[in-house]
Design goal:
By secondary structure, the chain is an alpha+beta fold. The protein has helices at 43-53, 65-86, 134-140, 146-151, 188-191, 196-204, 209-222, 248-258, 269-301, 346-352, 360-375, and strands spanning 3-13, 23-28, 31-38, 94-95, 97-103, 106-112, 116-121, 124-127, 171-176, 182-186, 229-238, 305-310, 313-324, 328-340. The protein folds into two domains: 3-240, Phosphatase 2c, domain 1, CATH 3.60.40.10; 305-375, no CATH class. It contains eleven helices and 14 strands. Strand 5 and strand 6 (106-112) form a beta hairpin.
Length: 376
C-alpha cells in the first residue's frame, strides 16, 4: 500500500545561549532534512545552508532512495569542502545532515553526524539513527554507559560531518513505514536538552504537529536552550484517503475534558500542615547533605585535567568529564585553542578527545603540541 504525507511541521530556534542560528532544515515532500552547522566566522550557517539547498538540485530519480540521499550528501560535502579550502576563515567548517525520503511504503534515511531521526508508532518512540560521535563510539566500546553518555561534556563532539574532508561516508538505512507513523528529525539542540521520554510524552499529547514542534522547542529552551534547536515532523497516511491518526488525539483530548474531577478526601488541616512542615525540614537537611557531597566532589575533581572540544575547537578542561542533574558540572573550561577538532585525523581525534584524565602539565603539553602542528 502506498503512503502519503498528511501532516507536516518544521521549526528552528536560536536557543537561549547562542547569538546566531547555525541550524537549517528542508521540508519539501517526499524529502525532509535537518542540518546542524559548525565553524567560526558564521561558517556553520554557510555549511548547513549548503546541505539543505543541495536537495533543491536535480537528482537521479532512477536511483534507489538510499542512493539518492547519499548522492545529495556527497555533493553537499564536496561543495562545503571546496569553500573551506578557498577561505581561511571557514577552515574546518562542517555540518551534520540527517534526511528522510518517503518512497512507497518505506522510508529511506541518509545520515551523517549527530542530528537524529525518530519514529513514533502508536505510543512507542524509537530512535532510527545512531550518532556519529565520540561518546556514541565509547558507548559501543563499553567504555561509557548510555546514562553517562547523556551527561558527558563531550557528547557534542562528532566523528563524521559534511565538509572537513573531501570524501564522506554517508550512512543509509531503510525502514518499513505504516499509516499513522510520525517521524521526527531534530538537531542535538533538542536531544541534548530534552530526554527521549519527555520527547515521547510531548508527541503523544499533541493536538497537531505544529503544536508539538512548538512544545518541543519551548521545552528545550525551558531546560536551558544551550544550542540552536530544530525540529521537523511529518505524519503518514494511506494513499486511499484513510487517515488512522487524524482523530486519535481529538478523542483523547475530549475524553480528558469530559472526565469528572477527582475528589480530594477531606482531612484535618492542622495535621496536614504539620506533616508538610516536617517534610520541609527534612528536605532542607537532605539538601544540605547533597550540597556537602557536591562540594567535596568539586574540590576533589580540581586535581584532574582532560582535553575535549568546545564549539568545534580543541579545549583544555579542569575537573572530571561529567555533568550531574540540574546542570551541575564537575569541570570548567580553562582554555580554548584555535585548532578545529574536525581537522584532526580520525584516529588521532579519538585518542585526543577520549576524556582521559591527565595531569595539568600533560594536558597543557598536548594542546600546545596540537597548536604547533596546526600552525605549521
Amino acid at each position: 500500500m502506498a503512503l502519503r504525507i498528511v501532516e507536516e511541521a518544521g521549526l528552528t530556534d536560536v536557543g537561549r545561549q547562542r547569538h546566531a542560528n547555525e541550524d537549517a532544515y528542508y521540508d519539501s515532500p517526499p524529502i525532509f532534512a535537518v542540518a546542524d552547522g559548525m565553524g567560526g566566522a558564521r561558517a556553520g550557517e554557510v555549511a548547513s545552508r549548503i546541505a539543505v539547498e543541495a536537495f533543491e538540485q536535480a537528482r537521479d530519480e532512477s536511483a534507489a532512495p538510499e542512493d539518492q540521499l547519499a548522492q545529495i550528501a556527497r555533493a553537499a560535502n564536496r561543495r562545503i569542502y571546496e569553500l573551506a579550502q578557498e577561505d581561511e576563515e571557514r577552515a574546518g567548517m562542517g555540518t551534520t545532515l540527517t534526511a528522510i525520503m518517503l518512497a512507497g511504503d518505506e522510508i529511506a534515511i541518509g545520515h551523517v553526524g549527530d542530528s537524529r531521526a525518530y519514529r513514533l508508532r502508536g505510543d512507542q518512540l524509537e530512535r532510527l539513527t545512531q550518532d556519529h560521535s565520540l561518546v556514541e563510539e565509547l558507548v559501543r566500546q563499553g567504555k561509557l554507559t548510555s546514562e553517562q553518555a547523556e551527561m558527558h561534556p563531550q557528547r557534542s563532539i562528532i566523528t563524521r560531518a559534511l565538509g572537513p574532508e573531501p570524501e564522506v561516508d554517508v550512512e543509509t538505512l531503510t525502514y518499513p513505514a505504516r499509516a499513522g507513523d510520525v517521524y521526527l528529525l531534530c538537531s542535538d539542540g533538542l536531544t541534548g536538552m530534552v530526554p527521549e521520554e519527555r520527547v515521547a510524552e510531548i508527541l503523544r499529547a499533541r493536538s497537531s504537529l505544529r503544536q508539538a514542534a512548538e512544545a518541543l522547542v519551548a521545552e528545550a529552551n525551558e531546560r536551558g536552550g544551550r544550542d540552536n534547536i530544530t525540529v521537523v515532523l511529518f505524519r503518514l497516511g494511506s494513499d486511499d484517503g484513510a487517515d488512522p491518526g487524524a482523530d486519535a488525539h481529538v478523542l483523547q483530548d475530549t475524553a480528558m475534558l469530559g472526565a469528572a474531577p477527582s475528589a480530594t478526601p477531606a482531612g484535618p488541616e492542622p495535621r496536614a500542615r504539620r506533616r508538610t512542615g516536617r517534610a520541609v525540614v527534612g528536605g532542607a537537611v537532605a539538601l544540605a547533605a547533597v550540597a556537602a557531597v557536591l562540594a567535596g566532589l568539586w574540590i576533589g575533581s580540581r586535581q584532574f585535567w582532560f582535553v575535549g572540544a568546545d564549539q568545534g575547537r580543541v579545549s583544555l578542561y579542569r575537573g572530571l568529564p561529567y555533568e550531574l542533574p540540574l546542570g551541575i558540572k564537575l569541570y570548567s573550561e580553562e582554555y580554548r585553542s584555535s585548532v578545529p577538532s574536525l581537522s584532526l585525523p580520525g584516529l588521532q581525534r579519538r585518542r585526543v578527545l577520549d576524556h582521559q584524565l591527565r595531569g595539568r602539565s600533560d594536558a597543557v603539553d598536548l594542546v600546545r603540541s596540537l597548536e604547533r602542528a596546526y600552525a605549521s
